[in-house]
Amino acid sequence: MISNPILKGFHPDPSVCRSGEDYYIATSTFEWFPGVRIFHSKDLKNWRLAATPLDSVEMLDMRGNPDSGGIWAPNITYADGLFWLLYTDVKVIDAPWKNGRNFLVTAENIEGPWSSPIPMGNGGFDPSLLHNEDGKKYYVYRPWGPRNHSDPYNKIVVQEFDATTNKLNKKRTNIFEGTDLKYTEAPNIYNKDGYYYLLTAEGGTSFEHSVTVARSKDLFGPYQVSPHGSLVTTWHKPTNAIQKAGHGALVETQNGEWFITYLASRPIRFPDRPLLARRGRGMCPLGRETVIDRIEWVDGWPLVVGGAHAKLEIPEANLPECDWGVSENFTDNFDNHKLDGNWQTLRIPFSDKLGSLTENPGHLRLHGNDSLVSLFEQSTVATRWRHHDFSAQTKMAFSPENFQQSAGMCCYYNTSNWTYCLVDFDEKLNKRCLRLIQVDHQIATFHHYDGNEIIVPDEIAHVWMKVDVKGLDYYYSYSFDGKNWVQFEKSFESWKISDDYIDGRGFFTGAFVGLHCEDISSDGCFADFESFTYLAK
Ligand code: 6LW
């Protein structure tokens, strides 16, 4: 059996392609650096991280990008001996016209080198590339506006793309206006048996999400919507363990089997607090994840085997198993000179400015930079929450010299929603202190200040910190010897770092647990992290 999700934790907008016997899925990374995560499989069951193509400031500079801006919906195809990767770098969200820049990069091998970004049309988002049977290439996307993206303004546009000059033909054709589900986006077109099959995401990216399929004999339409209804959705199944199914892409195996990869989320439910549950279905701190389902073709239409909803298990593909030995858990002793692929940073790469893996070998040294609310340069190295129950732990040495310097562990959704378990310097007590801060929709609450301090004794060189996530709630603990732990009385709500709780104008990421060091004084400080462990429960 294949267990879903195949990519756990925040991995939305999956785009899948095959090159020979190898399968690749590209997922959105938003404000997290490096941009785009590409996973590799040979059996559609076992996946490993294979590439993160946008891995330098030359390739991607997201300083100043808004929360949930940055890399939206990468699209990967394989044709003419090349991988073609399209993506949008979203620069503005809160505006009548959302605004982003679209690029294409190509590579012969998935590991790269990838070409420099080739600018594409900026008029829309969720671009994809059709390598048409006649040899021509077409750029397909959902335009922004006219008012804003939340507008149920439905249009899928095609422009021819000349890959020898890298120019888009200015002639735009509207090929599809969507169904009543609205929010028509994420177009992918496939050639099959004389038809063009157009997959789009509809219904918006929350619980109403879905995949619509339509077909036409002519690329430019008219497209006929499938008589079978949504190809993928869980809107009709409120109690299904996996919700929000939508935004999908098809792949055919070398043996002629068909599959669809799409995004979906596993909510935590609120049995006693129905009013809290969005649309009665809970909230999803793990963000939108990647799942896979099996496709059968009936009378020329694709159908998901077993129904349109996402399933926790599906039968395996007829492909030889290839287990990469990737663990659900993650331990880092920081012995490598390169940051492990489980980590991401915010908006910019992990560089000398942010920290180092060589200054104190065997440690992740983070240099104090901007605070957690910054849109610019933070020393935050974080990994996805991928289970409803897990524990993450670190061991840290830190000697702050003023009250504006701090370091520790955080659970982060975006600049306005996070918690931080930190060590700083209390200038009245002349001591290092342990504290907790919660920011919820930009409102901060402070714990263990003003008479309620937890002092770190001067002779203590290392502080251990731990976060235990248990369904609806999570708890921080600390230790001065790595054996005896003290749990903070104050616990936090896991569901407060989810798209669903934060909501509003569109939030699209997921919860991370991170290591962080900040220095608002700019005097200079650093924290040394000796180890980090993520353990599913
Ligand atoms: C994605 C688009 C969407 O590009 O959200 O709501 C964007 N719609 O399809 C981010 O996942």
Automatic annotation (TrEMBL):
Originating species: Psychromonas marina
Keywords, alphabetical: Glycosidase, Hydrolase
Protein name: Beta-xylosidase
UniProt keyword annotation of Hydrolase present: yes
Domain Beta-xylosidase C-terminal Concanavalin A-like: 331-534
Pfam families, sorted: GH43_C2, Glyco_hydro_43
Sequence similarity: Belongs to the glycosyl hydrolase 43 family.
Key word Ligase present: no
Top-level division of the source organism's lineage: Bacteria
InterPro entries: ConA-like_dom_sf (IPR013320), GH43_C2 (IPR041542), Glyco_hydro_43 (IPR006710), Glyco_hydro_beta-prop_sf (IPR023296), Glycosyl_Hydrlase_43 (IPR051795)
